[in-house]
Request: fold
Amino acid sequence: MSRLRPVLAVGLWSLVALGVVVPLVWLINNRDWGIGLMLLVPFVVYGLMRLGRLLEAWANTVPPPSGMSGSDTTPR
Reply:
């Protein structure tokens, strides 16, 4: 279970990046007005970086302990 979250995070980010970058590159390359989309590229890259950081934080979260152990078991 601990390896599932990083794999899902990388897979999800890859699908989103592919789904955003490929159409953007195709439009820039094949349309006359596509060169205007070059102004959006820094924002797209920034968004993908933010998404990657969010997914990394989600993948690296430590699940809460399932049982009480250690010094927390003593009543106060």
Notes: Residues 27 and 33 are 8 Å apart (CA to CA). Helices lie at 4-30, 41-59.
